[in-house]
Amino acid sequence: MNWKITQVKTAAMPVEGTIVNASFEVSKDGANVEADINLLPASAESFVKLETVTEEQVIQWVKDALDYNINDEAYSNVKRYENIVDQKTKETEPQITPLPWK
């Protein structure tokens, strides 16, 4: 499964250039899903300056924002997006079929 960041949005809080939203694409074998998500707030200890951030870091932040817990129940939206792409790769293109009449 291939994850790719296609766009980021930044804000000036808490620090200029803080990435607050990321658009992403999940793809495999020509099938893809695109979406965007607001990222979890950056902590002072783990803050990465915009000019030094890597795509791999932003992908991990997206996955962290997609997977969350509510009342001790885990929700894996990472798996949901990957399952959608898997399903799309299994779909077959409709074929032109000869008409049954002449």
Describe this structure in words.
It is a single chain. This protein has 102 residues and is an alpha+beta fold. It has two helices and five strands. The strands form two sheets. Strands 1-2-3 form a three-stranded antiparallel beta sheet, covered by helices on one side.
Number of DSSP-assigned strands = 5
Number of domains: 1
The biggest beta sheet reads: 3 strands, antiparallel
Strand content: 35-45%
Helicity level, as a percent range?
A: 25-40%
Low-confidence stretches: none
**Beginning-to-end CA distance, first to last residue:** 46 Å
Strand order of the largest sheet: 1-2-3
Tally of helical segments: 2
Averaged pLDDT = 89
Shape: elongated
C-alpha Rg (nearest Å): 19 Å
Q: Supply the helix-strand structural class.
A: alpha+beta
Q: List SSEs in N-to-C order.
A: EEEHEEH
Offer a few descriptive terms.
36% strand, 2 helices, two-stranded antiparallel ribbon, three-stranded antiparallel sheet, elongated
Strand and helix layout:
Layout: E1 2-11, E2 18-28, E3 31-38, H1 55-66, E4 67-70, E5 73-76, H2 77-90
Antiparallel strand pairs: 1-2, 2-3, 4-5
